[in-house]
Amino acid sequence: MKLFRNTLIIFLLCNLYTPSVAQKHFLASEAFDGSFRGTERFRVAFYNVENLFDYFDDSTTLDDEFLPRGGNRWTKDRYLAKQQKLAKTIVAMGGWEAPELIGFCEVENRYVLTTLTQFTPLKSVSYEIIHQDSKDRRGIDVAAIYRPDKFKLIDYFYYPVRFPFDTASRTRDILYVIGELPNGDTLHYFVNHWPSKFGGEFETQPKRLFAAQLVRAKADSILSVNPGANIIIGGDFNDEPEEESMITGLRVKTEIEQTASTDLFNLMYPIRYQAGTHSFENKWGILDQFIVSGNLLKGGGRTSVFKRTAQIFDLDFLLTEGATGATRPFRTYQGPQYLGGYSDHLPILLDLVLRYTDN
Fold it and tell me: pTM value?
């Protein structure tokens, strides 16, 4: 652990105070708290890691572009370089100690998560992996890693998303993780990667709406048994906070004060015009979001969302300037061109405040 902390201190000194590019974004990271959380806080994160493929051929999926002789020239060196960059991001996201629970999307298989957690500076954290292959045609999945010293895994389930109106379509499963927090409370965490708008926004909207309704039904099942359940729904939803899948499908509330314990509230809705996690045609949007149960906002229980907000992690090294001078995420590829960056999405995180006695 001492080596991990020393590495972190060096990293922060080198990278934290370089705001030239971040100033052109939104400086959401100004509020970043990197202090030691101990048993009083618990950090949950989500990160779309942009095509985290290995460099081996999988004959059952469409991974040909990400092979040494594929269109992207995805070599072992490029693969390992990306793993180091992702580890650097996760270290930085944690601050003084590594994040306790992280959801991912766009990971190819368990092997890429093993490389990330066992062959980078993250090895000292002893992360455990949750992963299952989905039916996605490209072979990309949702997954999670967690610190067993801070999160006791109770169970997890993968829910397939099968569209009755398009039975030939394949997409990512939805991951549902159940675990015990250090204060004894149970946390329910859903990790999502809903269908993209590739093929047309109007044409693909029913698929995102269907996925939203599926997640809402699962959340309602939990809340019907325990109205005070602690639920976090995170992911890349491929829709903005104000779009139909979020408002109608997930039935989220948009005002905190109007959110009851059994409601869902989108923490990204209040900042939807102020910040972004993804840039398309030089326009920032928030595709990566956290939705939480009302119980986590009220502060009456033993677990609550710190400051009732989530954060986009936008430190300077994760950003770059395009040809037009516009700021955007420093991604790995721009089309077939290798840029050598981190991801085309910025991570998001939130902190839970943990109490050990009832109010």
Answer: 0.92
